[in-house]
Amino acid sequence: MDSPAATGKFPGGWHRTFYTLWIGAFITGMGYSMTMPFISLFINELGHFSRFQLNFYSGLAFAMTFISQAIVSPLWGSLADRKGRKLMCMRASGVMACTIFVTGLSQTVWMIIGMRFLQGVFSGYINNATAMMAGETPHQHSGWVMAAMTTAGVAGNLVGPLLGGALSGFFGYRIPFFITGGLMFLVFLSTWLLTTEHFKAIQKTAMKPMRQIVAELDSQLIFVMFLTTMIVTASTMSIDPIISLYVRSLMHNHGNVAFVAGVVAATPGLGTLIAASKIGHTMDQIGPERVLRVGLTVAFVLFIPMTFTHSPWSLAFWRFLLGLANAALMPATQTVLTLDVPTEAFGRIFSYNQSFQAGGAVLGSLLGSAISGLSSYPMVFAVTGLTLLVNLGLVLTVRTPKKTY
């Protein structure tokens, strides 16, 4: 049975599947950002820790999910290519509902860290939802759909901290975990009952080995896209942990630092939401690689004024423009993979891509913390900009596909 991506036609029930997965990805992103910013405060309530211990345990709880995710994602990707992406979305949302809910019941810091590790082992809803929509969408519309799926997580990440902060302030730090767990269970039910995947199961013996698939593809292009995913994620994560501290230093610890830091942190997401749809349609017209090259160039240039800014509001302005550029990065990378990879290998390719994304999250957070500790906050922006310049150089070395998008 030919996939919708190959036939060029939208299958029956496509819109219901798309909206269900979009909402599921939105809730997943919202649940993450509703709980993670307050994990250190939650840990602080569970014992008497020194400043070093609190920072160490908070960092460990943050990193554990991404470490386990990077290790196991290829295994889930292989299963996805044999059993379908819908089953993987159900697996991720179902288990995450349990682990996040149980995290709210934690009585020790090690219980939180253990639950975060398990959450990473079974996570991957957004990644699999994106891969599923890639297989359900005709190629000529892939750019718009990949951009739209990206906005789901971005929108969730914008809403999550506001909702999590309000809930934590009124009801305590456990409540956001309970609510997120309940919402993820609803995501599990809706994905099970409301989505349709046109997928033909493949026997393990009939699957092409990953080495053979890579040999048949442009392996250099695929690997550069994996590296792009890692570098773009690292560029985001290197800055996120130090934004509030940088804003506090720019304001000389006067005024409502938390509010201003929240605005500065949210502006890239707002820019991405505004630009995503337009950039998605542009990708369908001129091709994702060209859009990716422009996006990396603009992102690099924007990090220059961010390195030298002395005002939190000018930093917010430049980060808003960076959000416009970011709308061209991850969606373009995923669209290149969608167009260059056969449908039967989507699960494995997207899971490897998720491993690189998780690796970028760990690398970026460690890099940002180390540079800001050894040098200064502006130096984090300078180094991050240079990594994007290196990424641009890598992208320029790979060929442009001779395809009509």
UniProtKB/TrEMBL annotation:
<feature type="transmembrane region" description="Helical">
    <location>
        <begin position="20"/>
        <end position="42"/>
    </location>
</feature>
<dbReference type="InterPro" id="IPR036259">
    <property type="entry name" value="MFS_trans_sf"/>
</dbReference>
<dbReference type="InterPro" id="IPR020846">
    <property type="entry name" value="MFS_dom"/>
</dbReference>
<feature type="transmembrane region" description="Helical">
    <location>
        <begin position="291"/>
        <end position="310"/>
    </location>
</feature>
<keyword id="KW-1003">Cell membrane</keyword>
<keyword id="KW-0472">Membrane</keyword>
<feature type="transmembrane region" description="Helical">
    <location>
        <begin position="92"/>
        <end position="113"/>
    </location>
</feature>
<dbReference type="Pfam" id="PF07690">
    <property type="entry name" value="MFS_1"/>
</dbReference>
<feature type="transmembrane region" description="Helical">
    <location>
        <begin position="175"/>
        <end position="196"/>
    </location>
</feature>
<feature type="transmembrane region" description="Helical">
    <location>
        <begin position="54"/>
        <end position="72"/>
    </location>
</feature>
<keyword id="KW-0813">Transport</keyword>
<feature type="transmembrane region" description="Helical">
    <location>
        <begin position="377"/>
        <end position="398"/>
    </location>
</feature>
<protein>
    <submittedName>
        <fullName>MFS transporter</fullName>
    </submittedName>
</protein>
<keyword id="KW-1133">Transmembrane helix</keyword>
<feature type="transmembrane region" description="Helical">
    <location>
        <begin position="316"/>
        <end position="337"/>
    </location>
</feature>
<feature type="transmembrane region" description="Helical">
    <location>
        <begin position="217"/>
        <end position="237"/>
    </location>
</feature>
<feature type="transmembrane region" description="Helical">
    <location>
        <begin position="257"/>
        <end position="279"/>
    </location>
</feature>
<feature type="domain" description="Major facilitator superfamily (MFS) profile">
    <location>
        <begin position="17"/>
        <end position="403"/>
    </location>
</feature>
<keyword id="KW-0812">Transmembrane</keyword>
<dbReference type="InterPro" id="IPR011701">
    <property type="entry name" value="MFS"/>
</dbReference>
<feature type="transmembrane region" description="Helical">
    <location>
        <begin position="142"/>
        <end position="163"/>
    </location>
</feature>
